[in-house]
Design brief:
Strand order of the largest sheet: 1-2
Number of helices: 5
Helix content: 55-70%
Oligomer: single chain
Order of helices and strands: EEHHHHH
Distance between the termini: 21 Å
Largest sheet: 2 strands, antiparallel
Radius of gyration: 12 Å
Number of domains: 1
Structural class: mainly alpha
């Protein structure tokens, strides 16, 4: 399973339910989202949907706080992107553009 390290290592799993929830949230297909340059709001929604099965107490707001704390502590977008790419490939969606 793909992992993202925020406050701790967390499983990042983009199953069909997570992908459908992401599409519903943004009212567009996942391929459209992945083909564009993503901002923090898109990343946070994807991370939330991918992590919430492992952590039932997780909310979108908590995910945003975790990502914010990660960045404030010196974390970088490249590492976030690498975790996202791994989860996308594991979901069978191929490599994002």
């Amino acid at each position: 399973m793909a992992q993202i390290i925020l406050d701790r290592p967390r499983e990042l799993r983009l199953d069909v339910a997570a992908l459908c929830a992401i599409e519903d949230h943004f009212k567009t297909g996942i391929s459209s989202l992945l083909s564009e340059r993503m901002g923090l709001s898109v990343l946070c929604v994807i991370f939330y949907q991918g992590m919430k099965k492992e952590d039932k107490t997780l909310t979108l707001e908590k995910t945003q706080a975790l990502v914010g704390d990660y960045l404030k502590a010196g974390g970088d977008f490249e590492s976030l992107g690498s975790s996202l790419n791994a989860a996308i490939e594991e979901a069978g969606l191929g490599s994002p553009k």
